[in-house]
Amino acid sequence: MELKVCGITTPEDIMQLVTMDISRLGFIFYHKSKRYVYGKLIEDGFKSIPKHIKKTGVFVNAELAEIEQIIDQYKFESIQLHGDESPEFCNYFRMKAE
Asked: 67: which residues sit within 8 A by CB, 6+ positions away?
């Protein structure tokens, strides 16, 4: 079973969570969320995430270009889409990963 913890907002959150038996860390990129982290994430915090814990970007109705830019910037291994994205929109990322 995989366990993902979402809503990480600080390097301190990351430091505590990487000591636990989790599979993924989720970072929110929805402008209306109080846990929105774009521009607030510290590179040092990301460097402390062990390779066995996957970083996930969480998006709600974001534009394709915005998602791609954030994936590249933060080196996310996976994304989670929580809006009204079409199957074609979602499949774009699936095909890109193959």
From this structure: 29, 57, 59, 79, 93
- Whose tokens are 């979402």? That residue is 6
Let me know: does 7 contact 28? Beta carbons within 8 Å.
yes
Q: Can you give the pLDDT of all 98 residues of the chain as single tens digits?
A: 899 999 999 888 999 999 999 999 999 999 999 999 988 876 777 888 999 999 999 999 999 999 999 999 888 999 999 999 999 999 888 766 55
Single pTM value for the model: 0.89
Whole-angstrom CA distances from 42 to 22, 37, 48, 62, 69 are: 21, 10, 10, 22, 17
